[in-house]
Specification:
- The protein has 3 helices and 3 strands.
- The protein is of the alpha+beta class.
Length: 71
């Protein structure tokens, strides 16, 4: 499970664009919905599946500056 947490330094657009770029199947529109959820609820699960791709997505999101919950 890949969980992105809310923070005070990433913009909605950056979160949405990063999710759309990194996670297969997430459109920019869906990325904005996730960004809204992360902001309002404090975090959101953006991907579930096998451990190996989860580690890759987690690392790519973290490198892009998103605040990640531990895997």
């Amino acid at each position: 499970m890949v969980i992105v947490q809310n923070d005070n330094h990433n913009t909605f657009d950056h979160v949405a664009q990063t999710l759309a770029r990194v996670i297969p199947g997430i459109s920019l529109e869906q990325g904005h919905r996730y960004a809204d959820s992360i902001h309002s609820k404090g975090q959101a699960c953006v991907w579930t599946g096998p451990r190996e791709p989860a580690e890759l997505y987690w690392e790519q999101l973290k490198q892009a500056g998103l605040t990640m919950a531990p895997l």
